[in-house]
Structure formats: structure tokens, C-alpha cells
Design a protein that fits this description.
It is a single chain. The chain is of the alpha+beta class. 20% of the residues lie in helices and 47% in strands. The radius of gyration is 16 Å and the shape is elongated. The two termini are 16 Å apart.
């Protein structure tokens, strides 16, 4: 399974579009630990790879991430990472 943020120089057939979201609630002690985003990127990448494998794809092209910090009034902060991309099968 390959993943790329760009296209590829090979013939391929689009199989599916997949997405995955990972989130983490920050406790009051961790409120400024934005480096925890790293684990969320890894988690969402693993989730999206599994979905692509289940759909029978060879890889994901055009992988993109969105990340945000969600703050609710009187509640903790949430770190959220959303990944999405196009599952392809390499033409034989």
C-alpha cells in the first residue's frame, strides 16, 4: 500500500474515496500540548490505509489532511485531524 500527496506517473483506475478522523481531548494539564497533533496524523493515516486495503486498492493518491483545535465554552480543547484521499488500483 502506497500513499502520496500527489498523483502518480502510472496508469490507474479510481476505486474509491476514503476518509478518516482522529481526535484527542486535552485535559487541563495538557491544554497547550499541540505537539500531540503528531500522533493524530499517524492515527488517521493508519485508519485511511486500512480503509483503502478493505476496498481492494493498491494505494492512495492526493492524500490531504485538515487539522483544527476545537474549543467549546467551559469545556476542554479537542485536537482533530481529518484525512482523505483517492484509492486507486494500478493498471496492469
Amino acid at each position: 500500500m502506497f500513499i502520496t500527496t500527489t498523483g502518480i506517473d502510472a496508469g490507474y483506475t479510481i476505486k474509491d474515496v476514503v476518509e478518516a478522523t482522529a481526535s484527542l481531548m486535552l485535559s487541563s494539564e495538557d491544554i497547550d500540548k499541540y505537539n500531540m497533533f503528531d500522533q493524530l496524523f499517524d492515527e488517521s493515516k493508519e485508519k485511511i490505509k486500512k480503509k483503502a486495503e478493505l476496498s481492494g486498492g493498491d494505494g492512495i493518491i492526493g492524500l490531504k489532511y485538515n487539522s483544527e483545535v476545537v474549543e467549546l465554552n467551559g469545556a476542554p480543547k479537542f485536537l482533530v485531524v481529518h484525512a482523505y484521499g483517492t484509492v486507486v488500483v494500478i493498471d496492469k
